[in-house]
Amino acid sequence: MSPRRLAAAATVVGLVTAGLTVTGGAATANGGGYSALIQRASYGVPHITARDFASLGFGAGYVQAEDNICLIADQMVTVRAERSRWFGAEAGNVSSDLFHQKAIDDQVAEQLLAGSRDGVRAPSTPVRDQVRGFVAGYNAYLRDGKAITDPACAGKEWVDPISELDMWRAYWARMVLASSGALIDGIVAAAPPTASGNGESAHAPQAEAAVATVDGAPAGLGSNAYGLGRDGTTSGASILLANPHFPWDDTERFYRMHLKVPGRYDVEGAALVGDPLIQIGHNGQIAWSHTVSTAHRFVWHRLALVPGDPTSYLYDGQARKMTARTVTVQTPTGPISRTLYDTHFGPVVVVPGHFDWTTTTAYAITDANATNNRALDGWLAMGRAGSVGELRKVLDRRQFLPWVNVIAVDRRGRALYADHSVVPRVTDSLAAACIPAPFQSVYASSGQAVLDGSRSSCELGRDPDAAVPGILGPANLPTLVRSDYVTNSNDSYWLANPEHPLEGYPRIVGDEQTQRSLRTRLGVHQVRQRLTGIDGLPGKGFTTSNLWDVTLGNRAYGGELVRDDLVRSCEARPTATTSDGATVDLTAACAALRGWDLRVDLDSRGAHLFTEFAMAGGLRFADPFDPTAPLTTPSRLAVDDPGVRTALADAVQKLAGIRLDARLGDIQTEPRGAEQIPIHGGRSEAGAFNMINGGFESGVGYPKVLHGTSFLMAVELGSNGPSGRQILTYSQSANPNSPWYADQTRLYSGKGWDTIKFTQRQLRADPNLVTYRVGEQRD
């Protein structure tokens, strides 16, 4: 039977419609089918309650389609390998299609689903039910016949029903985002040398440069997070700060929701659009967030090719033939075919001029996330954990986090940091024995491993405690539990808490005893200053209120360190030469920097000038990094370094046509229709904790945010249940005709917030609450 939206905008109490009843706030069904209760709170945030995971998925799929159908449909075009067909045969679309078509041809999604449904060897039944329900809910929204009002996809043929395989293909694409997905161009471009090709291998300096540009980190992604235990808060109740920095547009946007199956799952937070389960959030006992980890997700294998046959390689002295697969995709002008090459390690990849495929050498990768089918079960299990101890067991057993750390707190007052992400098993002993000499320095400096692909002894092997072969087990991964605090701002695990440095882990996971970013340093300083009460705010210790103030205090730590020295240098010699040889008068720049308040608030004047100076390479320090004082070194501006003045001149030149003392809120904005909403926050290069990266437009400023603070949550796990603040900076819907397209963006502009609404009492206190049901009978 056709699906139907049931009693939209009806009240919860006493509602009985079409065989569904409301019992204790949960939607139940008389017989088979899907049914879910939707309670839309302020800012359009859906609180979804259902009797089982299939119906919960249905509700999630339905409301996400209501708000962001174009984003989900766009994801499906990608994983169906149809971008060229619908959006044109541009190089990026063709490469994407070839990559995803190969995954379709190889039945990657089908293989993810094969095996015992234990949540480790293959996805469990509840997770499959959730995905099945999500698909049904999305398709039900389409079949309801409501007109799509988002101009991004209204009337487009590529918006059509989706399948469960589409969803699993999209899931796989997210898993490999920081590995194979970061190397799509190199995988598609890999081709054996012609008869005239050279036979020289990449040498070490080139290899190091190549690794630096393809280290697998998802572009534009990052985060801050604090886990504050009982000794770090005024109440003694744990508090979590979640502050992911993600794109403000396209398919990697977050979506706020609250999902509940009574007695089985009850989590409020956010997921990436198109995902059926909460990825950052809290239940009644624990709260958690993620930050992008420094660990690497793939390893290189240097292949020694068989003389005279560049598509065969030597392995323990025997020749092995590469697998060649011709992949064809459709474009508006006709089909395009490429032959892609695989080894038993994984795909052959080229980085032109660095990792070339020559007559003697080629390079393949092993992607540790390519077979990661554990993540949805992992997040489901996280949401059901009742303590940090239980969460650690989830992490140890499933090892599912694709490319992120976890920072968590529980009601017992404990805070957890762990990088238990999926990391290839490159131990120190394997690295010493199997990374060829020219690449040892690459591994030491970057953590990228280039292994000898000619020996079976250099395979990744298996740790005895690892969930699956080829990855580091829990004993080789950093974990820390504290009662005061843990923190991460995208540096490695080393100083998750500086009082207890984490050391001795394989280099592939991260670096130790090395310089930290300005954002990491400021993040720790903010915690320490709040705990001792020297940050200018009342009292000592954290509340959710002052945590919000600290996070959005918009300090620019780079300016705190060097602004005064920079101004003195500038005023002493108010002319400088740009990197292209132009002479620039610095008088206005000196005045703007002297008047700057060292923050990136809307009213901060001159903040953009300092940011451009930092981005031009001006933050050069006279003192070296000292591993015994990692949070305070380096700190002194190298005023005698010519590069400092050149960077300031370059910044002034770039900002031509823009007042150097302009208010940040006048030049850093986010468009919503005809409105330009002022946006506070700044770049990591300047040492801003609240990270906002805007696209620069000459003579205008930064009229569009590219990525930065996205979902922001400060939640306390108190005796009366979770409470606190949260916001989605770019708002719930990408549809300009949605009522929830700009409301939270304006709220963020004013440093406002929405409240945590975990309990029915909290939810029913919302004056904007609207309740309806969605459902569908099944044959």
How would you briefly describe this protein structure?
With 779 residues, the protein is an alpha+beta fold. 29% of the residues lie in helices and 25% in strands.
List the main descriptive attributes of the protein structure presented here:
single chain, Penicillin Amidohydrolase, domain 1, Penicillin amidase (Acylase) alpha subunit, N-terminal domain, alpha+beta, hydrolase activity, acting on carbon-nitrogen (but not peptide) bonds, in linear amides, hydrolase, 25% strand, globular, 779 residues, 29% helix, signal, Penicillin G acylase, beta-roll domain, eleven-stranded mixed beta sheet, 33 strands, Penicillin_amidase_A-knob
Structure description:
The chain has 779 residues and is α+β, with helices and mostly antiparallel strands. Among the domains are: 4-173, Penicillin Amidohydrolase, domain 1 (Orthogonal Bundle); 184-215 and 298-367, Penicillin G acylase, beta-roll domain (Roll); 554-688, Orthogonal Bundle (Penicillin amidase (Acylase) alpha subunit, N-terminal domain), CATH 1.10.1400. It is 29% helix and 25% strand. It is built from 21 helices and 33 strands. The strands form seven sheets. An eleven-stranded mixed sheet has the order 1-33-5-6-9-10-11-12-19-20-22. Strands 7, 8, 23, 28, 29, 30, 31 and 32 form an eight-stranded antiparallel sheet that branches. Helix 1 packs across helix 5 (125-143). The longest helix has 27 residues, at 53-79. It is globular. The N and C termini lie close together (7 Å). Residues 1-31 and 195-216 have low confidence and may be disordered. This is Peptidase S45, penicillin amidase. InterPro entries: Ntn_hydrolases_N (IPR029055), Penicillin_amidase_A-knob (IPR043147), Penicillin_amidase_dom1 (IPR023343), Penicillin_amidase_N_B-knob (IPR043146), S45 (IPR002692). GO terms for molecular function: hydrolase activity, acting on carbon-nitrogen (but not peptide) bonds, in linear amides. Belongs to the peptidase S45 family. Keywords: Hydrolase, Signal, Zymogen.
